Structure of Alkylated DNA repair dioxygenase:
Amino acid sequence: MTSQIPPPALPETPTALPGFRLWPGLLDAAAQGELLAQVQAGLDAAPLYRPTTPGGRPFSVRMSNFGAVGWVSDRAGYRYQPTHPMTGAPWPAIPAPLLSLWDALTGWPSPPDACLVNLYQGEAKMGLHQDKDERDLTAPVLSVSLGDTAVFRIGPAPDETGKSGATSTVRLASGDVCALTGPARLARHGIDRLLAGSSRLLPDGGRINLTLRVAG
Ligand SMILES: O=C(O)CCC(=O)C(=O)O
Ligand SMILES: [Fe+2]
């Protein structure tokens, strides 16, 4: 009989919001560098671009996607689509290390089919919102941070009366991973700002966030 060696514990940190899961420093420097190289190769094929809101305002964040479908926004609204809006080409494949992370951390029975890539530089931020353009809003959302630390704001999903609770902030540093699951799947969240110069991972500074979702 072989003895069962338990897998090494993942450094999950408890949070105040049930369903908001956080693994600070999950990716070490080598894993961050390897993932960044794969992300950069994908971005060569699917260049970052600046989308506009349905109201016509440009995002401060630049975006691209990997996977069967990608999240896009323009005058026609928010949606997932199989091609890059500027090049018309299919999105590149989701990097393998991200698929492994999804399996190890979420235990969700199907893989993500969408990976949004957000690049924050300078004053870029993202307003409070809910992720709700996916077909199955019970599938988790898994998010990986690379580069400068971000001030991530999060609060509970609005209740049945539409009232939303207080938000608080968490710093997301390079290599941190977090997830919106269960009761926090529809949590309101956004990025207040970056702590500029807090990481030297990205050659031009700033922060890349990779968000894995089951969209379709
Ligand atoms: O950059 C982040 O950490 C959050 C991004 C986000 O919430 C989104 O793209 O929906
Ligand atoms: Fe989001």
Q: What stands out?
A: The CA atoms of residues 138 and 182 lie 7 Å apart. The chain has a mean pLDDT of 96. Helices lie at 29-45, 96-106. The pocket of fe (ii) ion (ligand 2) is lined by residues 129, 131, 189 (CB under 6 Å).
